[in-house]
DNA sequence: GTATACCAGCTAAACGTTTCGCTGAGTATG
DNA sequence: CATACTCAGCGAAACGTTTAGCTGGTATAC
């Protein structure tokens, strides 16, 4: 690969002049400029971004660390983030912590070594597990979707309590009272809030869910399948389920199908965060949806601002509001 | 951020010694080693990968350039590639060309500037559009899924002709004769091969598809929807469709649903490359599937080998065989 | 004609690492 | 005791850029 020195030699100028031409950072006479340009052309020279970044102490890289790349929700996040990141002039490095705090730790240290300029992180560990977010040592970080009670960090989250409340109220409005849940892990605030929202919504109507109708999943299809299968085998199974995310809802659907139960006739299902495939497949899930694109845009806006302006601004904690999207996975209760 | 010099000063040794300790690249006496380690600890030092990479002329980055990040097939590719890439000690930078040759061009030049060590590319342009793959100037590249007749490049592809043949034969076996196709763009070999495979399979049974039953899509849901809607409105609509990819199959499903047609009762659908959601949703598409994980692993094996050993090995062109996966989107023909 | 101002272009240092080659002390060999 | 050898550790160059500061020539002002 040709270097700036080769170009300088070829054009019989100094490297400073070549640099000035490349970056338009100083006036260069037309004659010299032409010589430089033709030398660049002749040698097929392209400036080394690696060297530039090294010089400037940046990398033009933004890391996206998600909890589970196999989850369509995070696939969409990758899609949205790639678009925004490249619009801001960065490139997106993608990591998958696979819901494992150990992986996340390894990834974060790799992110630091790579010198990524910023990190968009869907955290999977509990709070204490994180290295102190000393801005001297860590690149700017924005937490996405999940957060902990660290008020000194930028976060972009969903009002999970409200999402669960919306979904549960819909079931209550349909007359359901025996409502169960495949919940999210309770060591995450996401899981706690969604469960609390559901229980609060029921309590507001004077209903209490049966403990055996509330089970925790791990956000994944497989475990939701087993847990739902177990729960729905029981004779006193719930007539409706609030499932804490879309992927688990698919697992529940599969369990239903295996048990010969129909949705929505036998069981109504509502979930949160679903990214349904395009229409045509049945049933379409009734769900609360994250405004994913807006959330992603906002997160990257915060991140880029932090990268460019440091700690001048107080931490931003943006909470988005979910909306209920009706599908056909719910039917009125038949048991009063 | 502390640098190696700070550590050296703190430990009262030379930077060379610190480097030796970090990299275990030379013997260092226990005493000095201890001093260095505690200095590293005290300063919270982590070596700058940027500087290292600059020094070594590499970046530890592998670029993945896909044709459409919104397509679940490529989402799965991201998932598989991330896992393999990180197992090889690299990090994955993701780009989305969005099926646009212009974007791809921009992306490739960015990839070069970033100094990525290798590129896994799903090409979207036609052949001539590509910069000469002069190994002096371009990082090692492996073409994935699509290719062109450049026998001097590493490629990993699917036997598209066979995929279409498998799918079409299944429809023929069910008695269908009025078979149509929502095909892939014919400027890509993928599109040409899939269409040819379908037509050849039909020809082998003495059937010829009607021209108006063959329409090209662009791999996306939206266009497949419109095209299918148009085609299926006609009174002489086909009784079965071979759809060239999974995302388009979903578009077709939506069109069916809008037109009040049922699958498989009114129309049978087979597709290629589908990544169906987990079971439970109906109908499950009958499809040929790519051995995606194996393909991805193989592609990265080729790429890493090329990165590490240069051009010593002749180009590898690995072709994988698709397999037919039965769902419930097909029914026997009712019209003989 | 001298002093001043301007400006195009150059020189060289700096960024954080790795690594080649050197030094000098200690040890073995004769 | 002198020479050779070993080897822990050091100094400094090199990687490809950017950029602060300098130089020397030309134009302007008096």
UniProtKB/TrEMBL annotation, chains A, B:
Which PROSITE patterns does its entry note? HTH_LACI_1, HTH_LACI_2
Sorted UniProt keywords? DNA-binding, Transcription, Transcription regulation
Keyword Transcription among record annotations: yes
Q: Per the database record, which ranges form the HTH lacI-type domain?
A: 2-56
- Give one Pfam family: Peripla_BP_3
Entry-linked InterPro entries: HTH_LacI, LacI/GalR-like_sensor, Lambda_DNA-bd_dom_sf, Peripla_BP_I
A molecular-function term among this protein's GO annotations: transcription cis-regulatory region binding
- Protein name per Swiss-Prot or TrEMBL: LacI family transcriptional regulator
Which organism was this protein described from?
Pleomorphomonas carboxyditropha
